[in-house]
Write a structure and sequence with these properties.
Chain B: InterPro entries: Beta-prop_EMC1_1st, EMC1, EMC1_C, Quinoprotein_ADH-like_sf, WD40/YVTN_repeat-like_dom_sf. The complex is a heterodimer of chains A (258) and B (959). With 258 residues, chain A is α+β, with helices and mostly antiparallel strands. Chain A has 9 helices and 12 strands. In chain A, strands 5-4-7-8-9-10 form a 6-stranded antiparallel β-sheet, with no helix packed on it. Chain A is rod-shaped and about 105 Å long. Chain A starts with a helix and ends with a helix. Classes of the chains: A alpha+beta (258), B mainly beta (959). Chains A and B meet through α1, α2, β1, β2 and α3 of A and α1, β1, β6, β9 and β10 of B.
């Protein structure tokens, strides 16, 4: 276990050993002082209702809370899903309903010093943008939280539908099936085939089947390049591929922006 | 060209996919595999058993952590729990319980809440007028409870139990002079407010429940009385009874409005044959089992620390029912007593002990003394009385005991307030240690070496066979019977050092040793002399790597007021106090530092700096002092005095005195120091630089002595407030960098690691949370690549900074840590919603470009986006939310890919994270079946094709 105690070179030879210690002098946390200025003045109430479609309120309200600006103010949900957060001074707040199972969108609530309320969509980038939301708040769950990634499961269909596999399997099928369809015992046919193969094959001395196959492969590749039939389809495919990749690209950009 | 562009696009897309995949997440089948959560409520302040249904299994608890919860009396688990705001605004002042409803008074009488006990939902919540709560009680009439009365400093109000609406509110007369302390209702349509003018008279006001009309208002002379709550009680048919220690006597007054006494009846205690213990303030305890009815006419009188009497009031006469002389401690509420560790039940009417009601319980010798006890009585099938008891001890433990003393469950509520923790490697088993010992010992001849080798090999073989045998043996037994319980005896390190001992220090002074794999508490130790405002620091002086020396941890306990410090030295694996005697520290301690120096027993040296700037070492053997003298010139430390805004650096002299070498004063009028963060001493950085897009290297500025100092402005106006950050070299005092965030305020959360500092603050201008990252680079060349010295670094580092919007508040923040620092880093962010977000450091990189260029793409930089996102897939604790996360502890494991994480707050959660996925072990979902089937299939395919080829060749040969 000695290697565990080995300290990297960089640290071992540090000339000045400074041990970053723990500061004993007590330090006050920030928020106390900042909040004290707001204690005077009127206090207001943020009201609303949270709805999970298709689920009984008893099943989820006991795990839910309403958080206003983090944990600055906390409210609880009544058994019918409605809530009220009391004792909130005027200002602008982000109100969230938090449960471990269901997802709710946050809403920004502005309270004027006279107690006028309005609710709008949260937009952290354009903070002054106003898209009104109903007040008293109506927060509808957009479904359960998705916490888990899907495992990459392995199925025969995935495997077979893979383009690489398709590309390999189809020629294989052709190679295997073609000799069966075309009667190889027929001497004329055989001659014809041999002729065609000789045309493709520059040195006809090698009779090995496997080598022939590979030759056929490389030969067919060459021929498809020259073949006129593929010419028509290619640009279309290319265009499609490009479009696809662009779509993907834009999707990714979207995901960064989120 | 188009093709090239397309290729690039595809490349970018691929990279994005890779990036996306690199972010770790939890898979559904991993739930509970290596993570666990424990939920706590805190120290219980009020507790009620839910008795309105016979079969109810609930006990309601309201705690000092502002938590209201229902526990299962059978298992001790939570039914539901509501966590209110921390601090005085969420403080629970009173808990009343009636039927299905529980009424809470919260925030010094600011809010009145009613909870549905069954569902755990809120019935109603109303705001009360002022925050000067005195007392609340349920008000019953004709056998039913419909109202709740709340007494405040100058008003009394009555509310409906069903919806919280106010029935009436009345001002209390003469509230400037009279101190109204308690409210009482006997279930006969009247509510009594009892007030006192100390050492003069008692004021009694009877209100009508219907309309709040004053039925009777009377003052009674009581010049000897100073506090009603402490020395009075209401018993029987509305008789106020008070005790006076000076006379000594009991005073009685009938509250009934038809009686018009102006004097209290005095009954000298001597006439009852009783005596008060000297210097003892007698205490009266009464009990009102149902608020719709009168209290019992029996009551307790405590005359001395261990002298209790059960008295009965009967037609103006007081009768002594029983004298509990040898009682150690008696608890209110119910009529029982606890003598050493026995609980007995007594009949209140007769004072006789009920048969078969003795309950014996064994206290944990490592726990505290019992403090409170809650009794749940019930009628058995044969009409005899049975009961269960919930005992609360000084160390905040709840123990639920059933007759005749079987402990049903215990809850270690001290763990709701973990202050600091460490993770300690488990020791090697005997065989492992033997093997290690072989390599450690000096060689003594070839033959003996060979012999030793063989014998250790034999031991391994033996261990393996016994392991196999155990596996075989267990496999034959049914699943449920196989117990893999972890005890201290069979603790040993696993292959990858993933299982560790979590040593947790709680604010109550109780220490715990918890197995990180299962979460079971392996040892506990209560330090009963810890001051209530203590600060703790836990250090591992010797790890388990130095067999046969036992591992050693040192806990520094400092009284925040006096600065006096004590040391508790213990073995972190067994929790036992060490034989090493810690030094006595008569002076207040300012700073402590654990040096990498070791004494001859491999214990790291702890330096303590006292307020005279003298340094003492622990352990302080000759060997250590000699080493210290040699090293003295290179030992530096710093002190922070936040009240003066002063940071100062000191150097150690060879005679263990100190010398100040630098000082930085931050003007107190403008800003104050909020926190000072250094780097973690056990952090390793693997790569010294970053490879740029053009294949050149940008070297990191890796100064191990760098401190990040956070300041906040004293002006809290939102236009003028700011947050400052100063990077300062702890050895030389040189200010490396200074940054100010205008229109921002704290709380600031900061992580300082490698060559970067990440901090989070509240932007008052845009009303949002923002993250900022500072990275330091040496440039394209390293000044001295072998050694870093603070004294010899002429070039100032390049500083890069970038800020981002974060769409949530945060509770705490920490960075992952791995053994060699090869794995990429993630930030673990505790959110108020209870999630722990694992945010890749990649997103907080000041080199994220605004315009994507060829080079940035080459470097895998993500294009800059102002807003960071919170994806629930990145929550490492999925739906296991953790309330009020106060700290996250990260610890490396034996696997480079794996970092162990413990988040603590009200709850404790332990898990593992893989910031760069599991690159060094096979993943859980590794498909053995696929691999083996493919291999087999290939094997058979070759066999078959070989055979076919042979046949074909043969056929051809025949032709």
């Amino acid at each position: 276990m000695w290697h565990r105690e080995r300290i990297p070179l960089l640290l071992a030879f540090v000339q000045s050993v400074l041990v970053v210690g723990w500061c004993f002098t007590e330090m006050e946390a920030g928020p106390g002082a900042a909040m004290s200025t707001q204690t005077n003045g009127d206090r207001f109430k943020i009201e609303g209702r949270a709805i999970v479609p298709g689920v009984k309120t008893q099943d989820w309200v006991s795990t839910a809370r309403v958080l206003v600006d983090g944990e600055e103010h906390v409210g609880f949900l009544r058994t019918d899903g409605s809530f009220a957060v009391n004792d909130v001074p005027s200002g602008s707040y982000v109100v969230e309903v938090v449960t471990p199972t269901y997802r709710f969108e946050a809403v920004r609530v502005d309270i004027t010093s006279k107690g006028k309320m309005r609710a709008r969509l949260v937009n952290y980038i354009k903070t002054s943008e106003v898209i009104r939301q109903p007040y008293p708040l109506q927060i509808r769950s957009s479904g359960p939280h998705s916490y888990f990634m899907k495992r990459e499961t392995w199925g025969w269909t995935d495997f077979l539908m893979n383009p690489m596999v398709m590309m390999m399997v189809l020629p294989l099928l052709i190679i295997v099936l073609l000799p069966k369809v075309v009667n190889t015992n027929d001497p004329e046919m055989r001659k014809e085939m041999e002729q065609s193969m000789n045309m493709l094959n520059p040195n006809p001395e090698l009779p090995d089947v496997s080598e022939l196959m590979t030759k056929l492969f490389s030969g067919s590749k060459g021929s498809s390049k020259a073949g006129s039939s593929s010419k028509g389809t290619r640009p279309a495919a290319k265009r499609r591929a490009k479009k696809l990749s662009m779509q993907n690209n834009s999707a990714d950009l979207d995901s960064w922006d989120q | 060209r188009a093709a090239a562009a397309m290729a690039k696009l595809i490349l970018l897309w691929l990279k994005c996919i890779i990036l996306y995949n690199a972010v770790d997440a939890v898979f559904e089948d991993q739930v509970g595999k290596f993570d666990w959560r424990q939920q706590y409520v805190g120290k219980v302040r009020f507790s009620h058993f839910d008795t309105h249904v016979q079969s109810s299994k609930k006990v309601l608890v309201a705690t000092e952590n502002n938590v209201f919860a229902a526990l299962n009396t059978r298992t001790g688990e939570l039914f539901w729990r509501h966590v209110d705001k921390s601090g005085p605004e969420g403080n629970i002042d009173a808990l009343l319980h009636h039927g299905q409803d529980a009424i809470l008074v919260v925030g010094n009488g600011r809010l009145l809440r009613s909870w549905d006990v069954n569902v755990g939902g809120l019935n109603w919540e109303i705001v009360l007028d002022s925050g000067s709560f005195q007392k609340a009680c349920l008000v019953g009439q004709q056998g039913t409870v419909k109202h709740v009365a709340v007494l405040e400093k100058n008003i009394i109000s009555l509310h409906y139990l069903s919806n919280g609406h106010q029935k009436w509110i009345e001002n209390l007369p003469d509230s400037e002079t009279v101190d109204y302390q308690t409210v009482y209702s006997g279930g006969n349509g009247e509510v009594y407010a009892l007030g006192i003018v100390p050492h003069s008279h008692i004021v009694i006001i009877a209100y009508s429940t219907d309309d709040g009309e004053i039925i009777k208002q009377i003052s009674v002379e009581a010049p000897w009385l100073s506090n009603i709550v402490a020395s009075c009680a209401v018993i029987g048919q509305g008789v106020l009874i008070c005790v006076d220690s000076a006379t000594p006597s009991l005073y009685m007054y009938n509250l009934n409005p038809n009686m018009d006494d102006l004097q209290m009846t005095q009954i000298p205690l001597q006439s009852l044959g009783l005596e008060v213990a000297p210097d003892f303030q007698p205490v009266l305890v009464s009990h009102q089992p149902n608020s719709a009815h009168q209290p019992l006419s029996e009551f307790f009188l405590q005359l001395g620390p261990d002298n209790f009497l059960l008295l009965q009031f009967n037609n103006g006469q007081i009768v002594t029912l029983r004298d509990f002389k040898p009682v150690r401690k008696l608890f209110s509420i119910f009529l029982f007593h606890i003598q050493k560790h026995y609980i007995n039940l007594f009949s209140a009417e007769t004072g006789r002990r009920l048969l078969d009601t003795t309950l014996i319980f064994v206290m944990d010798p490592n726990g505290g003394k019992p403090e409170k006890i809650y009794i749940q009585p019930f009628l058995k099938k044969d009409d005899s009385v049975g009961y269960r008891a919930m005992v609360q001890t000084e160390d905040h433990t709840l123990t639920f005991i059933q007759q005749p003393g079987r402990v049903m469950w215990t809850r270690e509520e001290a763990l709701s307030d973990v202050v600091t923790m460490e993770m300690v490697d488990l020791p090697l088993t005997g065989t492992q240690a033997e093997l290690e010992g072989e390599f450690g010992k000096k060689a003594d001849g070839l033959m003996s070496m060979v012999f030793k080798r063989l014998s250790s090999q034999l031991i391994l073989l033996q261990a393996w066979i016994s392991h196999l045998w155990k596996l075989f043996y267990d496999a034959r037994k049914p699943r449920s019977q196989v117990k893999n319980e972890v005890t201290i005896e069979n603790l040993s390190r696993d292959e990858f050092n993933l299982q560790k001992m979590m040593v947790m220090v709680t604010a109550s002074g109780k220490l715990f040793g918890i197995d990180s794999k299962t979460g079971s508490i392996l040892w506990r130790h209560y330090l009963n002399d810890v001051p209530s405002n203590a600060a703790f620091k836990l250090m591992v002086q010797r790890t388990t790597a130095h067999f046969p020396h036992p591992p050693q941890c040192t806990l520094l306990i400092k009284d925040k007021d006096t600065g006096l410090t004590t040391l508790h030295v213990f073995n972190p694996i067994f929790g036992k106090k060490s034989h090493v005697t810690p030094p006595a520290l008569p002076q207040p301690i300012l700073q402590s530092l654990l040096l990498p120096l070791m004494d001859q027993d491999y214990a790291k040296v702890l330096l303590l700096v006292d307020d005279q700037y003298k340094v003492s070492a622990f352990p302080s053997t000759k060997n250590v002092l000699q080493q210290l003298q040699e090293m003295a010139s290179s030992i530096f430390f710093y002190l922070v005095d936040s009240s003066q805004g002063r940071l100062s650096g000191y150097r150690l002299r060879t005679d263990l005195s100190t010398e100040q070498i630098w000082e930085v004063v931050i003007p107190m009028e403008i800003q104050r120091i909020v926190s000072v963060k250094g780097k973690r001493p056990n952090e390793h950085v693997h790569s010294q630089g970053r490879v740029m897009g053009d294949r050149s290297v940008l070297y990191k500025y890796l100064n191990p002595n760098l401190l990040a100092v956070v300041t906040e402005s004293t002006d809290t106006h939102q236009e003028r407030s700011f947050v400052g950050i100063i990077l300062i070299d702890g050895v030389t005092g040189r200010i490396i960098h200074e940054a100010v965030q205008r229109k921002a305020r704290g709380p600031v959360h900061i992580v300082h690691s490698e060559n970067w500092v990440v901090y989070e603050y509240w932007s008052t201008k845009s009303r949002r949370n923002e993250f900022s990252v500072i990275e330091l680079y040496e440039g394209m060349e390293l000044y001295n690549s072998t050694v870093f010295s603070s004294l010899d670094r002429p070039h100032a580092p390049q500083v890069l900074q970038q800020s981002y919007i974060f769409p949530s508040a945060i509770s705490t923040m920490e960075a992952t840590l791995t053994e060699k620092g090869i794995t990429s880093r993630h930030l673990l962010i505790g959110l108020p919603s209870g999630g722990i977000l694992s945010l890749p450091k990649m997103f907080l990189d000041p080199r994220r470009p605004e315009i994507v260029s060829e080079q940035s793409r080459e470097e895998n930089l993500i294009p800059y986006a102002p807003e960071l996102m919170i994806r629930t897939e990145w929550f490492i604790n999925y739906n296991q939310s953790i309330s009020r996360v106060r700290g996250i502890h990260t610890s490396p494991s034996g696997l480079e890919s794996t970092c162990l994480v413990v988040a603590y707050g009200l709850d404790i959660y332990q898990t593992r994270v893989y910031p760069s996925k599991q690159f060094d072990v096979l993943k859980d979902d590794y498909d053995y079946m696929l691999i083996s089937s493919v291999l087999l299939a290939l094997f058979f395919a070759t066999m078959i094709s070989k055979r076919l080829a042979e046949v074909k060749l043969l056929n051809r040969a025949w032709r």
